[in-house]
Fold this protein.
Amino acid sequence: MADMGQKGIGEELQAARIDKGLTLDDVQAQTKIQKRYLQAIENNQFDQLPGKFYERAFTRQYAAAVGIDADDLLERYDLVAPAENPNMEQVRVDEDNVTRVGMRSEENLQKKQLVNAMPKIIMGVVALAVVIVVWALVANFAGHSKSSTEDSHVSISSSSVANSSSKQSSDSSNEKSSSSEDKKKSEDKKKSDNKKTEISEPAIAGTTTTFEAKVPADTDRKLTLTGQNGDSWVLVKSNTGVVLYSGTVKSGVNQEFNLNSDVTSVNIQTGNANNLKVNFNDNDLNLSNTTLVWHALINITQK
C-alpha cells in the first residue's frame, strides 16, 4: 500500500470517529482492538502494527465501528490482503476483552505459572511444617526423657550420698561417743587411781621385805595389823624412831594406826610372821617371809 493511501485512511477514519462523537476508548470498546493500534492507524503508522494482515483486519474493524464501508475503503486505498498467513499465535484477547497482538504478556505468564505452582508450594510448605512439628515433638520428648533419667540418677546418687553421709555421721558420732566414754572412763579410772595408794611389788632382801607406797595427797595413811591362825608378836617403828606399837596381835584382832604425814617409812618386826596379816590403806602386803622372824619395811611417798 502506498504511503499516501495509508495517510488518507487514517485521516478518513479519524474524521468519521469525530463526526460520530466517539473517542479512541469508545472504538477500542467496540472493536476490542488495543487503543495504541487504533492511534497508529489514525496516524497512518501502519509499521506499528504487528503485520500486513492486521493492517487490513484492524482497519476493517475500525471502519465498521465508525460507520464506513470497509470493503470500499480498503479498495479505494488499495489495501490488499497479504499472501502469507497471519501468525495467529501472536493474537490474544486479554482479561479486559481487548484484542492484543504480540507475545503473551510476561507478567500474565508469570502469574499463571505462579497460580499453577501454588498447590505444589502450599503442599510443600505444609509438609515442611509437619516435619518441623514432628521433629520438635521428638526432640522435646527425647530431651525430657533424658532430663528425667539424669534427674533420677542424680536423685538416687544424692540419696546414696545422703545415706552414706548419714552413716558416716552416725559412725563418727558413735566413735566420738565411744571415744568420749572411753576417755571419761580413763579419766575416772585415773582419778580413782589417783585417790588410791599404789604399792609396788615386794622386794626381798635377807629377812626383810620392802614395799614402796605412793599415797595421794590429803589421804589418810592407815596401817592395820591382823592376827590370823594364832598370835603374833609385833614391833612397829616409824622412821622418826617413834614406836607405834609393841605387843602381841591376837588372832582375829586388828591393830590400826593412822600415820602422820611426816612419817616416810614404817618398819615392822614380827616374831611369828605366818600369823600376821599387814594392810596399808586397803592394800594387803604379802610378807613373803621364809622364816618366822621377819621384817617388813614400808617406804611412803606422796603422789
About this structure: The mean pLDDT is 82.
